[in-house]
Design a protein that fits this description.
The complex is a heterotrimer of chains A (116), B (265) and C (154). Chain A has 116 residues and is mostly helical. Chain A has five helices and no strands. In chain A, 21% of the residues are buried. The chains are: A mainly alpha (116), B alpha+beta (265), C mainly alpha (154).
């Protein structure tokens, strides 16, 4: 895959993070809740996971932030050493970590939203 | 008159000041120079008191040291006028051309001179430019005829408007002094990175309307350790002595790469 | 002694990756954009570490009310709140500075090629992108202040 393809995807993820993170932070400060403490209450959190819009924002933020974060880490790791074996190893390692992070987050979303 | 001078020289009397070539020194500064290299001697800083006069450059000071104090001092220089790019070195911690740095403007009585960072050291102030020139060659730094040009001799000149020329003219000012690569943090971390100088020249040819190898050049820079490895530290443009602005060239190159990708898709 | 970042002059060998990653920050020229890159990298790694932590902490909500309230109890202390403030401030700087970088890469904010006349002025280090960098620092401070007000109230 060309490097520019990954960069184009990364630009998309950056835009997605900007939009969804703003909503996520607002939802813990004032959006739909009287304050921060209430936004962290169990009932509020579970209610959020069962609202379609809210859970979509969380899922998009999860995928976008995971990709963007690991993509940045990839740059740092590939600066440290070079060579096809190291590049492949970093690629597979980060994909594995990313799948784990997104997988665990989606598991949480599915379990709580289905808990009905 | 020449007979008189000859008699003076034979009697070992001092030559009159009117025929002396060097200007009268005004003061003395201490020039601390990095000495040593792997397999030569242990690295250390050696201080040389150097008489300085108005208009004297750091290169003049190094030449004085070599002539009068220590002929073993190793450094590169050639034109003495900021066009050959040979005398790049760290002067008071910053990458500069020694011939373009006047002692008076440094405003200090102690001047530290060291080899350029990010380059393997040969000895004293001389560094190895093999990788640097290798990166430059990798981006195919010469004009290729357009694809529709057959292999025979050209039938007419390549026409180019002033506007087309200005698209790349700034980046032709590069003298390959290596200061940009020495200042770049990504070059410091990653030896495979093409570096600001090679990327600037890649854009110089990519933006040249006469060149026919844009696709090949895009493939070379659109890779790991290529143009996307630049993270806009901007230090390359901060140290460039010729106003080339390598950071600008690299961002323009990224845009060119994206423009071609999106046009093809 | 000089500061050759990549190569140790005593041995002629490349330094370790970690040493090089630390040394380049202190190498000159210490222009603002270089310092911004250092802060961008540090905040990026910090935010990634927080993201991993956050995904697994919020995962406890799937284990029921008891598990969730136990975790929230552990994290309701001044030190954790300070960590949250750092995360918010770091994320704000990272986002606004990242926007600056994206604009430099994709838009004419970086400048256009033009004839270099002495005294040379690097367009890529121009006032436009510098003002976005200052805005990043300012917004980071403001977001930390807002976070302080939200967490501790007035």
């Amino acid at each position: 895959m060309r490097e520019s393809t990954l960069r184009i995807v990364n630009y998309g993820m950056m835009l997605a993070i900007l939009a969804t993170l703003a909503v996520h932070l607002a939802s813990h400060a004032f959006l739909g809740v009287p304050g921060y403490e209430v936004s962290l209450a169990y009932d509020t959190v579970v209610r959020r996971y069962r609202e379609a819009l809210s859970v979509t924002v969380l899922a998009v933020l999860l995928v976008a932030a995971t990709f963007h974060g690991l993509f940045g880490l990839r740059s740092i790791l590939l600066d440290a050493r070079s060579g096809p074996r190291w590049e492949r190893g970093v690629g597979f390692g980060l994909i594995a970590l990313g799948v784990t992070m997104v997988g665990w987050g989606l598991r949480t979303i599915l379990l709580v939203s289905a808990g009905g | 008159m020449f007979v008189e001078l000859e008699r003076l020289a034979m009697r070992r009397e001092p030559v009159p000041a009117v025929v002396r070539a060097e200007p009268r020194p005004e003061r003395t500064v201490l020039v601390r120079v990095f000495r040593g290299g792997t397999g030569v001697s242990a690295p250390r800083m050696v201080a040389y008191p150097v008489p300085v006069h108005k208009g004297m450059t750091v290169l003049d000071a190094l030449l004085w040291i070599k002539e009068h104090a220590d002929p073993t001092l190793a450094f590169r220089s050639s034109c003495r006028m900021g066009i050959c790019g040979s005398c790049g070195m760290l002067i008071r911690g910053e990458a500069r051309l020694a011939c373009e740095t006047q002692v008076a403007t440094l405003g200090t009585e102690v001047i530290e001179v060291a080899p350029l960072p990010n380059f393997p050291l040969i000895r004293d102030l001389a560094t190895d430019f093999t990788d640097f020139f290798g990166h430059h060659r990798r981006i195919r730094p010469h004009l290729h005829p357009p694809d529709d040009q057959d292999s025979g001799p050209f039938q007419e000149e390549f026409r180019q408007t002033e506007a087309e020329r200005l698209e790349y003219y700034q980046f032709t000012m590069c003298i390959m002094c290596g200061l940009c690569d020495a200042a770049c943090p990504i070059v410091a971390l990653d030896r495979e990175f093409l570096g600001p100088q090679a990327l600037t020249q890649a854009y110089r040819f990519a933006a040249d309307s006469r060149d026919g190898a844009q696709a090949d050049r895009m493939r070379i820079v659109d890779t790991v350790h290529g143009c996307w490895w630049c993270e806009l530290a901007g230090s390359c443009s901060a140290v460039c002595p010729k106003g080339v602005d390598p950071a600008l060239a690299t961002q323009l190159l990224k845009r060119e790469v994206l423009r071609r990708r999106l046009r093809r898709s | 002694m000089p500061n050759p970042v990549a190569v140790d002059p005593r041995t002629g060998r490349m330094r370790s990756a970690v040493r090089r990653e630390i040394r380049w920050v202190f190498q000159r020229p210490r222009n603002l954009e270089r310092i911004a890159l250092a802060v961008q990298r540090i905040s990026g790694v910090g935010l990634l570490a927080y993201l991993v932590f956050h995904i697994f902490v919020t995962g406890t909500v799937a284990s029921g009310r008891g598990a969730w309230e136990a975790v929230m109890g552990i994290l309701s202390n001044p030190l954790a709140h300070l960590g949250e403030l750092l995360v918010v401030a770091g994320a704000t700087f990272h986002a606004v500075n990242g926007l600056r970088v994206a604009l430099l890469e994709l838009s004419p904010l970086a400048g256009r090629a033009r004839r270099p006349d002495y005294p040379y002025v690097a367009q890529s280090l121009g006032r436009g992108q510098r003002s976005i960098l200052f805005a990043a620092v300012l917004m980071s401070g403001l977001s930390a202040l807002a976070g302080f007000v939200i967490l501790w109230g007035f």
